[in-house]
Amino acid sequence: MKPAAVDYVRPADLAAACSLLAEAGDAAMPVSGGQSLIPMMSLRLTGFETLVDISRIAALKRTETDATHVVIGAATTHAAIEDGAIPDPSHGLMARIAGRIAYRAVRNLGTIGGSVALADPAADWPCCLLALGADILLAGPDGARTLPADGFFLGPYETARAPAEIITGFRIPRLAEGARWGTSKVARKSGAFSDSLAVAILLPDGGGRIALTGTSSHPRLLPAAGAALAARDSAALRATVKAELAALGEDADPYRARCHLATVTRAAEEAWSA
Amino acid sequence: MSADADTQGWVGVRLLRKEDRRHLLGASTFTADVRVPGLLEVAFVRSQFAHGRLGAVAKPDGARVFSAEDFPHLKPIDGGPELPSFRAAPYHAFARDKVHFVGQIVAACLAPTRAQAEDLADQVGVEVDALPAVVDTVEALAPGAAILHDGFPDNAFIHATVTEGDIAAVAAAAPVALRRTFRMNRQATVSLEGRGVLAYWDHRLDELVVTLSTQGAHVMRIGLAMALGLPEHKLHLIAPDVGGGFGGKNRLMPEEVAVCALALKTGRPVRWIEDRREHLMASVHCREHHYDITLYATREGRLLGLKGEVHIDAGAYSLWPSGPFMEASMAARNLPGPYQMQALHVETHTVATSKAPMGPYRGVARPGACFAIERAVDELAHAIGMEPAEVRRINLVGPHQMPYRTIGGMQLDSGDYPQALERVREMVDLAALRRRQQAGEDDGRRIGVGFAVYTEQSGHGAAEWTKRKSRIVPGYESATARMLPDGTLLLLVGIQNHGQGLETSLAQIAAQELSLDPHAISVRYGDTALTPFGFGTFASRSIVFSGGAVARATRALADKARRIGAHLLQADVADTRLADGAVHGPNGKVSLAEIARAANVRQEFLPAGMPPLLDETATYEPEESGGFFSYGAHAAVVAVDPETGVTTTLDYAIAEDCGTMINPMIVDGQIIGGVAQGIGTALYEEIPYDADGQPLATTFGDYMVPCAPELPALRIHHLVTPAHGTEYGVKGMGEGGAIAPPAAIANAVSDALRDFGARIWETPLTPRRVSDAVAAACGDRSEDAV
Amino acid sequence: MTAITLTLNGDRVREEVEPRDILADLLRDRLRLTGTHLGCEHGACGACTVTLDGLPVRSCIVLAVMCDGRTVETIEGTRADATMDVIRRHFHEQHALQCGFCTPGMLIAARDIIARHTRPDEATVRRELSGQVCRCTGYMGIVAAIRAAAAELHPAPGADLRTPDLSTS
């Protein structure tokens, strides 16, 4: 279980990294924490020829804050978020999510940007960022662009990121004062990928957002369920979620559908009780 | 370490382990840590097909790539019982003609690094003409099923019946007959250190030196010599530190043969270190039993008899030496458990499927049998409206009945089984739990409690192994006790410590006999050139057999030391005693160091005619070789989420009796570790196969090994009934912890979900299985589950 | 091949590596630091845990080339670490190891848990140990050892300070 031979470059900055990726196309792969990529290399499940090490690019580690948003760099590790080492727009939600990803030694290297770029359908961050209404910041050979998280995830391991683009960070709106959140996860054991993960956010103006992962395709917002959050009625919420899952075709696996019902309900209940 | 030792001796003392220091410093030596110059690493090319005819193997030009055609003289390594009804299929280290499971070795690639060897493996082309996979254990015997092995009339290695008493009469008269099916799914043994082999020809010694991770180097030498066609004195096997085994390192495997053959063929040192994917795909697999049993009983809960059919999924081949048949016979004979009943009739089928071959794993067969009988007892209790613990109590063999031969033919020797059950019932406070269940939980989860009682045959010798028709009969152990000139002691033993603390426990026994400090004793094992012959460590046998051999050898050494001491003290031997590391006489004492000096290097001080040296070798087998039964009762308390099926173990209590404990700390460690593995079987660990025979859990991403958050703090109560007929009254106990948890946990989950009528019949109880069971029971009412 | 330099257990080390070389293989096979064990090679068992710039990481899923210029500490590098000696002694006293294969990674994780949580309760220790697989002990001794070591290393105000016994036998 050892990786196949590969070339390695460590570009000095973002522009160099993007042009390397643009030249190489599918043959190049950016790596930062490598905590998902390197195991796949060892299992010889990857096909690229060149690793582009972006782990030391300073631009990916910046954090910026203003009155309404926090920007965190893509190379921010799960552990840094877990420990509150960077500004938190989420009243603790992101620290809670981070602390349940894989294992601590993995969180010390694994990055939020890598998780979003891989877009494993059971991953935690895509779901959380959807719920928070975050934007995804990208840099490419043609410059920078910003995409909302909603719409960024297209399928299992498939996103709107172009092959030569690098996720540079996330622009996350600060949760309003008085906003409440809850989250719930079902997994076969601690640290395992989730069968279902829900994040619920109840805004003080009565609005709400619910995001769900562990789905058959990619993490999703459940708009109807989110709208039902303010009513604080578990039974009504369950009915809404059930209908919404059916509409999305996410009820094909009855077990997963039960898990989704449970995690959404519990996330909502935690938000209500917070 | 222990202030008690001076007055009470070393047996029974919580002595901290001698083997810890090297591990804590990161200075231990496992097989993969051994390196010799010029080493070549092996990557195996393995079959990607579950079943098929093997065509050409295309090898890259000029590379060191080898397959069956390169080793025409290697002998197959299949094993099995010496029974004419047992069908053998030849198991070649490199597949010939056909492949029979995904992961079977087709070719070996050698290169200076493992990565380079894997590069070569990627270039090897293997032609396979695929045939239908044989996957389902029971359907494999159905008419029309594809036949795995050419020449087999059906897919069974053997069919056999275990019968005692008049089951027809019992069935005809029994007021209650309860039929249930149960399944315990397939697992791997998952020692944290995988297997590994390093082999090279040592020209000075003119022998093949083989370093390997095994539970028994001496027995493996027999198998390797047979496969390679080498005389045994040309094979020197060394098992250094071994990172767990649990049964999985106690069979001769093709990789071991292949690596030796590659070293002989290339003249280079060659090693293979198993990776985790290989371990999960192609190392020893285990469990996978299917039970269809009918329990006969009275309406008052008295058990009358058991009839049933057991299918054991043995995988594609029968591993040397014992093969998979032991699994079936032990499952059948242990099905009555510790209960009294009048008749037993079990048809067993040891089935060949296109999966990795089955071998032993901690508990061997008994976790499945215990799961089946204990689940059935709970189902019976529910059917007749009794408390399950009460049904157990009235059927358990009582202390006044000992020794008691069960209807399965197990000779239970001693102990108080009902007492163990009563203890765990108190420990979890059954009455309070029943009240809590009635009150319900605030969070919607359901609480359940489950019990299981088990027995653990240990220290069984020739009588038992010959009854099993084993081609190796591990009926004794041997030990050499050698006192060095300064009075320190070398113990050479044939067992293989691989985590059990035997360096410490055996030193305690020697220290007890010689009144030496354990720190003055070194224990050596795992080297065929160094230690007397022994069978290794498995089957809960080492403390009984090797402990006994150490006691005998050191006792003989002590006798001789006393005779020398008496001579030096000019006293009569009868007036001397050994204490505090010295021989004491009426007029003084002489230290063992002085005695050892005389015996080794100053023979003029020896009694006339006494041969020099303090060097004694002894073998040991208990007179009664049917085994000594440790036993215990486990109680599990779980909380189950009926919607998601997530189960949490809230409390786990154990009352057990393994006779005299040489080192209670080590005993507790074995129990806790065993239960952790048992909970793994109950809730987490599984290697499913798809319909094409592809294994679906080949990394730890899919194969769930329980970690600290998954496991509860256990509570242990010891009953101590010293065994009659072993040294110090010990019984083996290494496996017991793993036997009862699947039954206790499954009973607890079933108890928790009783209101729904969910059918809990199959391990592991994954969230999906439990959630599906609740949904299936509720049908359209599944919303009620919440 | 690429030249890298590491500060390894306090020493400057210069090695030529292939980009695909895994840090654990460099440590074990080239630098002969075999206390770092490989139990899964895909980051799921924790036996290979070392520290990289002071943080525990899985050396089986780290590329050596990416460690250029960084500081690595393996279990061998902790032999003179007084904190680790306290943890080792409690592992010994609490029977926190059996076969010993998981032990080096477990110790590195344990030291980090104590550093971050000071005096962790049982649930915290268990949660933090997720992903450190021990197949032998059932974790009870490990959890007890970490808690006992934490209590000794971070005594509650007014508690007796024990002098660490640096021996591990």
From TrEMBL, chain A:
Residues 1-177 form the FAD-binding PCMH-type domain. One of its GO terms (molecular function) is oxidoreductase activity. The keyword Oxidoreductase applies. The keyword ATP-binding does not apply. Pfam families: FAD_binding_5 (PF00941). PROSITE patterns: FAD_PCMH (PS51387). InterPro entries: CO_DH_flav_C, CO_DH_flav_C_dom_sf, Diverse_Substr_Oxidored, FAD-bd_PCMH, FAD-bd_PCMH-like_sf, FAD-bd_PCMH_sub1, FAD-bd_PCMH_sub2, Mopterin_DH_FAD-bd. Keywords: FAD, Flavoprotein, Oxidoreductase. SUPFAM superfamilies: CO dehydrogenase flavoprotein C-terminal domain-like, FAD-binding/transporter-associated domain-like. PANTHER family: XANTHINE DEHYDROGENASE SUBUNIT C-RELATED. This is Carbon-monoxide dehydrogenase medium subunit.
TrEMBL record, chain B:
Keywords: Molybdenum, Oxidoreductase. SUPFAM superfamilies: CO dehydrogenase molybdoprotein N-domain-like, Molybdenum cofactor-binding domain. The keyword Oxidoreductase applies. GO terms for molecular function: iron ion binding; oxidoreductase activity. The keyword Oxidoreductase applies. Coiled coil: none annotated. It comes from the Bacteria. Residues 25-132 form the Aldehyde oxidase/xanthine dehydrogenase a/b hammerhead domain. Signal peptide: none annotated. Pfam families: Ald_Xan_dh_C (PF01315), MoCoBD_1 (PF02738), MoCoBD_2 (PF20256). This is Xanthine dehydrogenase molybdenum binding subunit apoprotein. It comes from Aquabacter spiritensis.
Automatic annotation (TrEMBL), chain C:
The keyword ATP-binding does not apply. Residues 2-78 form the 2Fe-2S ferredoxin-type domain. One of its GO terms (molecular function) is oxidoreductase activity. It comes from Aquabacter spiritensis. This is Aerobic-type carbon monoxide dehydrogenase small subunit (CoxS/CutS family). The keyword Metal-binding applies. Pfam families: Fer2, Fer2_2. InterPro entries: 2Fe-2S-bd, 2Fe-2S-bd_dom_sf, 2Fe-2S_ferredoxin-like_sf, 2Fe-2S_ferredoxin-type, 2Fe2S_fd_BS, Beta-grasp_dom_sf, Diverse_Oxidoreductases. Keywords: 2Fe-2S, Iron, Iron-sulfur, Metal-binding, Oxidoreductase. PANTHER family: OXIDOREDUCTASE WITH IRON-SULFUR SUBUNIT, XANTHINE DEHYDROGENASE IRON-SULFUR-BINDING SUBUNIT XDHC-RELATED.
